[in-house]
């Protein structure tokens, strides 16, 4: 998935059509849920035209109680 500035945001792990959510794993290892209406399928890639890398890190902090890096 690519963001508003054409930066790589992460890999789509799965899509929940019923909830209209996509689970995205960031390069840091953390996975976040992104609302489907914020995503655009371009055929060869998915973009999130309104999400920057800073935005996705803020989502990670909110959804994981402050964690932005996965620790094994």
Word description of this protein:
The protein is an alpha+beta fold. The chain has one domain (11-63). Helices cover 15% and strands 28% of the residues. The protein has 1 helix and 5 strands; from the N terminus they run βββββα. It is globular and about 35 Å long. The N and C termini lie far apart (24 Å).
Number of domains: 1
Extract low-pLDDT stretches: none
Principal-axes geometry comes out as globular
Strand order of the largest sheet: 1-2-3
The main sheet comes to: 3 strands, antiparallel
Mean pLDDT: 93
Estimate what percentage of residues fall within beta strands. 25-35%
Q: Using DSSP, what is the number of strands?
A: 5
- Count of helix runs: 1
- What's the alpha carbon Rg, rounded to whole Å? 11 Å
In N-to-C order, the SSE pattern is EEEEEH
């Amino acid at each position: 998935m690519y963001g508003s500035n054409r930066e790589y945001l992460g890999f789509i792990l799965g899509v929940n059509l019923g909830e209209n959510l996509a689970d995205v794993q960031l390069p840091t290892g953390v996975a976040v849920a992104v609302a489907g209406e914020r995503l655009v399928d371009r055929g060869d890639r998915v973009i999130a035209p309104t999400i920057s890398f800073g935005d996705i890190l803020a989502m990670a902090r909110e959804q994981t109680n402050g964690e932005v890096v996965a620790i094994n």
